[in-house]
């Protein structure tokens, strides 16, 4: 089932010279083709979010510039018996020292990103996103609340001809978002917490990276769902990328499947069902018209964040767990999804 949305195949500027949305930028692409030449201050948001998962642990890195402040963070979760969770976040007033490029950070031809001191103390974090010939290098360093040194060093591969989803979501000429979501990227490396070393990649340690690259000018308040997963199932390498609520009424969606490196764009809004009072209950995500998605998501951990800091209020339930069910690609291939590791989240943001 082909999407009704316009596919972009040539490089394009996100904005016109006056800073409003370029109509020619509205659409989606299989590789990042937009240059986010944003102008203005106050409603402009930029971020790079990477999450790398294995069957036993995961790590997530965030670098963000929200105009009036930056929020940079390192998050690690070790699951199973003796589950452990670590998070280090740094708020930077006026986003001083944080500069994110107009294209995907650390990609070939783009700029590297480095934030924070080389040896962070006092709640600060160091995050590096750099281009290497073999892929994108992710490094991070911080002290946990228990003052354990936490260090990340991961290389995310760039498989040849591997496709991703980039899409512009237009609320209006003044409010719009460009997002580039990359799933099912193989990764190798390590996470050190104190004296303990956890590896990514290698035998029985499949590791998969997901990127959320965002650039846009946002309304003051917004609600969204986001779900993603990566791994091998039914003889295929599969990446799931789903969004909800924030795209309704715009004519754009951020829904796609990446199967063996080939993208299937899903143009319809998906039907998300979950319990706001009990996010750990099973979720369902379905494509009501096409039937291309019929999945149940079963969480095993909720990363719950509830903050109200004046200019910013955030309520996030990011649940990590497994997807089970079936999906169908554009060419009609039915794929059984069996416990694909990923997440689903419910977010309310005032910023």
Distinctive features:
DUF2804 domain-containing protein, AttH-like fold, 351 residues, mainly beta, DUF2804, globular, 13-stranded antiparallel beta sheet, nine-stranded antiparallel beta sheet
Explain how this protein is built:
- This protein has 351 residues and is mostly beta strands.
- The chain has 2 domains: 11-218, AttH-like fold, CATH 2.40.370; 220-351, AttH-like fold (Beta Barrel).
- 0% of the residues lie in helices and 58% in strands.
- It has strands at 12-13, 28-29, 34-35, 44-53, 57-65, 69-78, 84-93, 113-115, 126-132, 135-143, 149-157, 165-170, 176-193, 196-200, 208-217, 221-233, 236-244, 255-259, 262-266, 271-273, 283-286, 293-309, 312-328, 334-350.
- The strands form 3 sheets. Strands 2, 4, 5, 6, 7, 8, 9, 10, 11, 12, 13, 14 and 15 form a 13-stranded antiparallel sheet that branches.
- Strand 22 and strand 23 form a beta hairpin.
- The model has no long low-confidence stretch (mean pLDDT 95).
Helix % is under 10%
CATH architecture of the largest domain: Beta Barrel
- DSSP strand (E) fraction? over 45%
Q: Mind telling me the C-alpha Rg? A: 19 Å
Helical segment tally?
Answer: 0
Shape: globular
Order of helices and strands: EEEEEEEEEEEEEEEEEEEEEEEE
Quick synopsis:
With 351 residues, this protein is mainly β. The protein is built from no helices and 24 strands.
Q: Layout of SSEs?
A:
Elements: E1 12-13, E2 28-29, E3 34-35, E4 44-53, E5 57-65, E6 69-78, E7 84-93, E8 113-115, E9 126-132, E10 135-143, E11 149-157, E12 165-170, E13 176-193, E14 196-200, E15 208-217, E16 221-233, E17 236-244, E18 255-259, E19 262-266, E20 271-273, E21 283-286, E22 293-309, E23 312-328, E24 334-350
Parallel strand pairs: 1-3
Antiparallel strand pairs: 2-12, 4-5, 4-15, 5-6, 6-7, 8-9, 9-10, 10-11, 11-13, 12-13, 13-14, 13-15, 16-17, 16-24, 17-18, 18-19, 20-21, 21-22, 22-23, 23-24
């Amino acid at each position: 089932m082909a999407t009704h949305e316009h596919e972009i195949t040539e490089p394009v500027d996100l904005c016109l010279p006056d800073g409003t949305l370029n109509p020619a930028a509205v659409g989606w692409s299989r590789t990042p083709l937009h240059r986010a030449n944003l102008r203005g201050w106050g409603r402009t948001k930029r971020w790079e979010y990477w999450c790398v998962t294995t069957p036993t642990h995961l790590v997530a890195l965030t670098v963000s510039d929200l105009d009036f402040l930056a929020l940079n963070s390192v998050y690690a979760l070790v699951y199973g018996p003796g589950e452990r969770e670590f998070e280090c976040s740094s708020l930077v007033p006026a986003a001083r020292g944080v500069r994110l490029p107009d294209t995907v950070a650390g990609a070939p031809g783009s700029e590297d990103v480095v934030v924070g001191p080389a040896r962070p103390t006092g709640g600060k974090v160091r995050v590096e996103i750099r281009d290497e010939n073999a892929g994108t290098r992710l490094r991070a360093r911080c002290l946990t609340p228990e003052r354990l040194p936490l260090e990340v060093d991961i290389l995310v591969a760039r498989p040849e001809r591997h496709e991703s989803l980039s899409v512009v979501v237009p609320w209006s000429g003044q409010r719009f978002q460009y997002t580039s979501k990359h799933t099912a990227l193989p990764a190798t490396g390590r996470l050190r917490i104190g004296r303990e070393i956890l590896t990514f990649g290698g035998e029985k340690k499949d590791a998969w990276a997901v990127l959320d690259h965002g650039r846009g000018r946002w309304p003051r308040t917004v609600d969204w769902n986001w779900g993603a997963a990566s791994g091998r199932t039914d003889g295929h390498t599969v990446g799931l990328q789903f969004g909800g609520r924030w795209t309704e009424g715009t004519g754009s969606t951020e829904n796609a499947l990446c199967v063996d490196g080939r993208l299937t764009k899903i143009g319809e809004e998906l039907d998300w069902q979950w319990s706001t009072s009990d996010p750990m209950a099973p979720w369902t995500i379905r494509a009501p018209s096409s039937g291309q998605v019929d999945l149940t998501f079963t969480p095993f951990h909720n990363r719950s964040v509830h903050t109200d800091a004046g200019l910013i209020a955030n309520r996030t339930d990011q649940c990590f767990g497994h997807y089970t069910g079936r999906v169908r690609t554009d060419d009609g291939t039915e794929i059984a999804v069996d416990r694909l590791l990923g997440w689903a989240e419910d977010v309310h943001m005032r910023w």
